[in-house]
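Comment thread on ticket #2218

A.B. wrote:
> Attaching the input chain for the structure job we discussed in standup.
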Amino acid sequence: MLVSTLNRYLVKNTLLGLLLSFTVISSLIVLVDYVEGTRKFSTNSDIESVTVFIFTLLRTPQLLEETIPFIVLFGIMGTLHNLNQKNELIILRAAGLSVWKFLSPIIIISGLFGILWSTLLNPLASYSLSTQSEILNGLGLNSEITDIWLREGSQTNKIIIHAEKYDESTKTIFDVTYFIFDVDTRDELKFTNRIDASKAILLKSGYWQLHDVKEVNTSGLMKQKNTMSFATSVTELDLINSIKKKNLTSFWEITNETRRRENNGFSAVLLNIQYNKLLSLPLMLIAMSILAACVTLNHSRQGNTAKLIILGALLGFTIYISNNFIISFAKSEIIPPFFAAWFVPTFTLLFGTIYLSLIEDG
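C.D. wrote:
> Ran it. Output below, let me know if you need it in another format.
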């Protein structure tokens, strides 16, 4: 009965700490992004402040995804520091409870928070970005996007497409260059020809319709045509997702999107990295909660609030930078995405567990 009451009390305080941390960090993100959005749309008198604020709210879930470890770190640190300030942790230790006993509810909540974010809030972030894009299109603010790169192909050929700009209203890319490669029996790419066009329209029938075409092969022979069409596997959704680099692929869609890209013969490294990051998020948050305990439980009662904040920020940024550094190797295909996404959470968890055990056992 005592343990059950204690667990309820710890769960309540942990949820309040996480809520406070979430509120503070999300408020800062909303404020900064709103100011940036106001500056961005300041030249457009048709955009009201309320609309800019709506855009900010739609972007917030995506922006928050990078800060989830910070939210848990500061939330758990605040919870344990508050308990420490009221001598409640000392009482628990005096009652014979180990650090792992009263940390168990906190660790479970952190893991559940990671699962909740990956499975529910990440798809919400993806949906909110799509909604923002639709609103921008409706206002005519997102109709033209510059510097477009696309890839498509099959097991026998690959096509890399570059365009200077894209008009969503007409599904047209302008100043287009197609680099066409054949795939030989050793799966090596062999350049065959290049096609330049003033514009290319993506038709619903599954074709590109090119205008003012110049085609050059490897021998230098050039052909000119007014119009030209060829089949494509690129859809309007593929085009939109490719040109909006900040868009998120929903957790539940990553597997299908990865399979589609690999079937077309292209790399799905970025999707694999994102998928493994979402899978490892619960482990990362558990590691951050243990790390928060390492920092908090090793400080005395008085005068350590500022030091806790500074130390917590340093630890958080160190882990964030280390994680991004290792993931950059995965993006360059030097190390596997699985290793890159799981290494820092695993190392942080092991380090925190060992250090906390030393504190507990002396």
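A.B. wrote:
> Thanks. Noting for the ticket: Residues 91 and 265 are 61 Å apart (CA to CA).
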